[in-house]
Structures are given as C-alpha cells and as structure tokens.
Amino acid sequence: MSRSAHDVAGSVGTVFASVFDQLAAWRAPVEQLIDGAPEVRPAALDSVVAELVLPRLTEPDPLLVGAGFIADGEIVRGRDVHFAWWLGPLDANPVLGSTTEPTRLDLTTRGYTEYLRDFRALEWYRIPATTRHAHVTGPYVDHLCTCDYILTMTMPVHAAASPDGGAASGGTRMVGVIGADVSVRRLEHELLTAFLEVPSPLALVNDEGRVVLSTEPTLQVGQLTDPDGPGEPCPGTPLRVLVEPAASGSN
C-alpha cells in the first residue's frame, strides 16, 4: 500500500520532534548551571555541554552533524559570545578534511566569521529570542563548518533575571540557545524512502517555500517553490510536504 502526503508529513514531524525532545533534555542542565550565577566560567560551561552532546554526535549513523550551546556574552566571563559547539565525525569536509572524532568549533580558525559579531540578528537566535519557542532555520549552506546544506534547530535557554530585571518577581532572561544541525543529505537518508512511496512527486519545503528535499526532478535543495500549493503541514515544524510542486520564478 502506498503512503499519502499526510503520512509522510507525520514522518517528518516525528524526526524533528526527536531532535526538539533532545534539545529540551539538554537545556535543563545548562539552565541549572547558569541559573542565579552572574557569570559562568567558560571551561565549566564547555564541560557540561560536551558531556551532553558528544554521545549523540558519536553514536552509530548519527542524525546530528553538530550540536551545542551558544551563550550570550553577558553570562560568560570575559566573552562577548561563547560557542560551546561540537561537530561530529565528517567525511571529506572542505574545512576540516575527514575526521573520525568530534571537533570543537574554534572560531579563530575559521574565515568569514565577522557576521557572528551580530549573532543576535541571525535567524537561529533572533526567532527563539522573539517567540521564546524552538525554531528551524534553513535549509542553508553552512560555510562555517560543513560547507553543505543543513537545517539548524534551536531552542531558547533562560535563567533567572538579573536583580534589576525582575528576579524578585520570578522573571527570566534569555541567555542563549541550545541547538543542533542536521545535514540535508542525512535527512534524505532518513526520509527519502517514505517520500518515494507516494505516487505523486513531493517536496519538503520551509515556510518560505525553499526546498529541503524533493522527489520532483526539477526541484533541487535550496530552490524556491510556492509554499501555498497543495500539501500537508509537518506537525511541530514550520515545514510542509507539497504535492506535485512547481518551481518558483525566483531563487
């Protein structure tokens, strides 16, 4: 029996729910470390985050290609921004070559990092800060780490507000995002079989209509299509599975 677009959208939602559940589980110990402390030592933060994310990055056939915590500089001693972020083992990566062990993201060794100075304006930080909810950014080419199409899932991390920000009344402030990257190629491996079981061509797109994966040969990852065409929303995500999608006139 062939699947329907509704079934496929449910499968997409299940994959993303598993990542968001993992982010929520990681968020709790990070918030416990930060909560109530005016500053956190970078080494202490790195140790906690590494212990959380490294098992997922080194499991057999990992779904996640990178994960960690990006801290607002106000909580990390001596830093404007702090990336406690690791990449899993990579095959033939243009930046790092082939790696067999997790790699800590070191911004000092990367080019094109100037845009991170205003990281609060970037979608993966700005949307969770505005909505206080988890967010999916992408697909986009990750020039910082993987040099490949990825989706970034981020979730806000909060701590007790500073004394002048309402701590007495139980207020909280956002102190960063916990996040994970999934490569589009790895997502295809996870989902393409289900997409191919539907007789009609399908495309998984974000809320702007940008293609994540597709069984329509004329649509490639990153290309734009009409996000309002016939299809099914993927539960718990901003993504939709479009049926018989067509390319947009612009990219």
Explain briefly what this protein structure is.
This protein is of the alpha+beta class. It has helices spanning 5-34, 42-57, 123-131, 184-196, and strands at 66-72, 81-87, 103-104, 135-141, 149-160, 172-183, 202-205, 211-214, 231-233, 240-243.
Notable traits:
251 residues, 2 domains, 4 helices
Distance between the termini: 36 Å
Radius of gyration: 19 Å
How many helices? The count is 4
In what order do the strands lie side by side in the largest sheet? 3-2-1-6-5-4
> In the CATH hierarchy, what is the architecture of the largest domain at level 2?
2-Layer Sandwich
Q: Overall mean pLDDT score?
A: 86
CATH first level of the largest domain: Alpha Beta
CATH topology of the largest domain: Beta-Lactamase
The CATH homologous superfamily of the largest domain is termed PAS domain
How much helix is in the residues? 25-40%
Major pleated sheet: 6 strands, antiparallel
Low-confidence stretches: 165-169
- What's the total number of strands? 10
| SS-derived structural category | alpha+beta
Name the shape in a single word.
globular
What is the element string, with H for helices and E for strands? Answer: HHEEEHEEEHEEEE
**Total domains:** 2
Proportion of residues in β-strands: 15-25%
Question: In words, what does this structure look like?
Answer:
- The strands form 2 sheets. The chain has a 6-stranded antiparallel beta sheet with strand order 3-2-1-6-5-4, with helices on both faces. A 4-stranded antiparallel beta sheet has the order 8-7-10-9.
- It has helices spanning 5-34, 42-57, 123-131, 184-196, and strands spanning 66-72, 81-87, 103-104, 135-141, 149-160, 172-183, 202-205, 211-214, 231-233, 240-243.
- Residues 165-169 have low confidence and may be disordered.
- Helix 1 (5-34) packs antiparallel against helix 2 and helix 1 (5-34) packs antiparallel against helix 4.
- A hairpin with a 6-residue loop joins strand 9 and strand 10.
- The two termini are 36 Å apart.
- By secondary structure, the chain is of the alpha+beta class.
